[in-house]
Inverse folding.
């Protein structure tokens, strides 16, 4: 495994551990009705933790192995992975937009027991997606996109382009 | 992911050139050793520029290094 792959793997583990823990705790807190100030503090703590852990781990990896310059393959893999992350982010955003706008369409449709139930469920889902959850879900979307970039980079390094 | 249909003789050429190491070839060409490994194993098709540099490193024509299509290796 090359230094680049080790570095990517370390970043992936740190991101998943720190932000995974943050999102689980935060979603529980939001659903329990805790104030946003506490969540903001947790977010700052998570971001600082990621920065500190990344500095320590990446410095350690750099000191253990010879420095390596990027070449055309590294740049191509990076470009392709960022494209995948962008696709992931775009899909997430479109799902979100649909999630927030479609309930209003359902309620305008002619009523039937099935449609009424569907409208009720989608409005309830849309209500959960508002307020305190909006910035958290937006952040979750960015983290998922970032994880996609790292995972696909690792995949291309392992399996080729 | 399917290997590229561009085959190469890099391993044989390295052997014929005083058993040149992958690192030495990488340094001669200006890429990382991982890229040479990926090219050798058919997991990456290099740009024309890198392909010409690889041929120049072995002092052979490019079609002695890279072959498009089937090749028994």
């Amino acid at each position: 495994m090359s230094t680049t792959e080790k570095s990517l793997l370390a970043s992936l583990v740190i991101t998943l551990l720190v932000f995974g823990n943050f999102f689980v705790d935060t979603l529980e807190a939001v659903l329990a009705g805790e104030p946003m100030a506490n969540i903001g503090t947790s977010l700052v703590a998570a971001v600082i933790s990621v920065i500190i852990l990344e500095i320590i781990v990446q410095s350690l990896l750099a000191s253990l192995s010879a420095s390596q310059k990027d070449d055309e393959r590294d740049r191509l893999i990076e470009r392709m992975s960022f494209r995948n992350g962008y696709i992931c982010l775009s899909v997430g955003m479109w799902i979100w937009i649909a999630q927030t706008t479609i309930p209003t369409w359902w309620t305008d449709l002619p009523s039937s027991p099935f449609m009424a139930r569907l409208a009720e469920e989608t409005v309830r889902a849309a209500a959960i997606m508002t307020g305190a959850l909006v910035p958290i879900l937006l952040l979750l979307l960015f983290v998922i996109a970032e994880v996609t970039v790292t995972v696909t980079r690792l995949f291309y390094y392992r399996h080729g382009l | 992911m399917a290997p590229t249909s561009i085959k190469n003789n890099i391993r044989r050429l390295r052997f014929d050139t005083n058993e040149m190491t992958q690192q030495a070839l990488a340094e001669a060409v200006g890429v990382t050793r991982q890229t040479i490994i990926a090219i050798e194993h058919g997991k990456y098709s290099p740009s024309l520029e890198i392909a010409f540099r690889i041929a120049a490193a072995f002092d052979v024509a490019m079609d002695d290094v890279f072959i498009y299509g089937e090749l028994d290796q």
User: Anything to note?
Assistant: The interface with chain B takes residues 2, 4, 68-74, 157, 159-161 of chain A (CB under 8 Å).
